[in-house]
Amino acid sequence: MTDLEKIASNYQEQLCIPSRMPVIKLLGNAPAGLNANGQGEIDVWHETISGIQERNIRPMIQQMLDYLFIAEFGQLLPEITFTFNPLDELTEKEMSEINLNNASMLANLATSSCISTMDVAQWLINNPKSGFAFMNGQENEDETDEKEGENT
After folding, report:
1. Which of 60, 120, 127, 152 is the most exposed place for a label (fewest CB within 10 A)?
2. DSSP assignment of the chain, as one string?
């Protein structure tokens, strides 16, 4: 009975091989051990998925779009493209670091007169992740969703 946990763990790992999914994704089992968070496995999983999207799925979707464009418009429209959704999301800390770096870059460019303060303001307004979309009368999607929920 002492080796039963080891046998079950080995069986779970063997189940994951055909699907190429890590144990944490397929079964929801958190890794055990010191400093084990499974981030390496998740990163490899995301690389695998990205590869499948680009190698297998993108050509099929592009072919369907080409057929639709020819049927609907009589020509291909290369300016219309698509992207896949990101597989992982930035944490609030990572997003704040990016915003801080962007703010520093914009301040340096404005200070050195490479761009005007109007260009900086326009960049902030047009970047939905900057937190300044409200300057153009736009609200964040989260705030809009919250207000709609309160009204119903």
Report:
1. 152
2. -TTHHHHHHHHHHHHHHHHT--HHHHT-PPP-STT---HHHHHHHHHHHHHHIIIIIHHHHHHHHHHHHHHHHSS--TT----PPPSS---HHHHHHHHHHHHHHHHHHHHTTSS-HHHHHHHHHH-TTSS-GGGGT---HHHHHHHHHHH-
Residues 61 and 104 in one domain: no
| Residue 2 falls inside a structural domain | no
pLDDT in the model for residue 41: 79
Residue 85 belongs to some domain of the structure: no
Distances in Å between the Cα of 30 and the Cα atoms of 37, 48, 65, 136, 142 are: 7, 20, 40, 44, 30
Asked if 110 and 141 sit in the same domain, the reply is yes
Q: What is the model's pLDDT at position 103?
A: 85
Ranges under pLDDT 50 in the chain: 138, 140
Which range marks the domain in which residue 27 is found? 7-73
In a domain, 118, yes or no: yes
